[in-house]
Amino acid sequence: MSNRITTLFNIQYPVIQAGMIWCSGWKLASAVSNAGGLGIIGAGSMYPEVLKTHIRKCKNATSKPFAVNVPLLYPNVEEIMNIIVEEGVKIVFSSAGNPASWTGFLKEKGITVVHVIANTKFALKAEACGVDAIVAEGFEAGGHNGREETTTLCLIPMVKDQVKIPVIAAGGIGSGRAMLAALALGADGVQIGSAFAVAEESSAHPDFKNRVINATEGDTKLRMKKLVPVRLLKNTFDETIAQAEAEGADAETLKQLLGRARAKLGMFEGNLEEGELEIGQVSAMLKGIKPAASILNEIWQEFLTEKQRISSLEF
Fold first, then answer.
1. Global pTM value
2. Which positions carry the signal peptide feature in this UniProt record (predicted)?
3. Are residues 135 and 89 both part of a single domain?
């Protein structure tokens, strides 16, 4: 398949693996890139020196393009950006912040820049900043989410009608059917998080992966809307937050309940009750822990099958 996304990143399939904290190390990124997609190292859970190690290991593990995701509110963002330049990373996905702060710097270094947004307002701002593409993420997605709670089904066509740069759909996409639907809505490619979070190469704790693949419909909820909305799996911590929100807890109270390193505790260390378990609604459809290449191949084959089925329908 050849389109604006495969051409932009020089990849085989318009499938991007999301840069998820505590899941997206060099093993997952290189596996996805080797399979024909675009793997991403998630810098959000890495100290600068740790990121440098992951970038170097990823370069040794694949000759294919890969990217680094950088939350722009990261406290060491300047050091992170300098490492990215020094290590010769060619693609950066930015999120959680103003793309105007770093897009120009990265573009001057010849780096392709993609920014993650959750509404049309910020899609237009990102385009005006000069990014090469955007990820439009619907509220089905795991982890941090848009305050508007706009679903992928609505977000993609709204954004597509407003911008000229390529649009990558994210949120609720974990199958070939969902990928086909996203492209039908106008997306040029898809970004997939939850399905790769449970891949064999994901750095997430095995207990977290097993909890995800055993999730059922309704097991995730959007919480902490007074801080930054985040989609979580149900557990003791989630229940604590839900009760606090029902009682009218303010942002400061929620911040204290969240504490520090809560996502690391759950997703990386495997504390399934007190940890923060970030995952998308599509978790209810995930049924196994498989190699990243198998996940990508299954999605692509289903995409082709469903595309053929739709094209054969008589209207």
1. 0.95
2. none
3. yes
